[in-house]
Amino acid sequence: MGEERRRFEETFLPYLDAAYNLARWIVQHDQDAQDVVQETYLRAFKGYHGFRGGNGRAWLLTIVRNTAYNWLNRHAADEKLVPYEEEKHAEIVSFNESTKEIVSEKVKEHLQSALGRLPTEFREIIILYEIEGLSYKELALALGVPPGTVMSRLSRARRRLQQEFAQVRSSEAANGL
Length: 177
Fold this sequence. Notes:
Elements: H1 2-12, H2 16-27, H3 30-46, H4 56-74, H5 86-89, H6 99-117, H7 120-131, H8 136-143, H9 147-176
């Protein structure tokens, strides 16, 4: 058992950040994402004997994705609650920050908000491709869809992200007036 555990850790621990990142964007809360990743690693370890080598990252991210969707289904009623978020409700901006840093931070917030407003299937494909750097082939494996579907979904997701980003920015501009 010790040797199997060592091989499992060598194979999959390097993808811990990618697993958390995907889980975080799907379930949209830090603690929930940590729970999803923990459950993912337990599932992956239990199913490790079925892993035939190949792309360990895609295999693990597929488990993350499935675990996150299962978690969302179990906690669907909880989504109606509005959680307290320190960043949103108690934001303090230092007067020493330059205007450029403030603008850059605002753009980052707008992008995160726009990304969070996307449907989950669009959000996950953008995260996996743009942030985690998966290829079309790896995405097809992880999502269980043909490469052509990956390309069209990614294209639609990018368009939708642009629309959401523009809407978030214009909404803030209107509220600021």
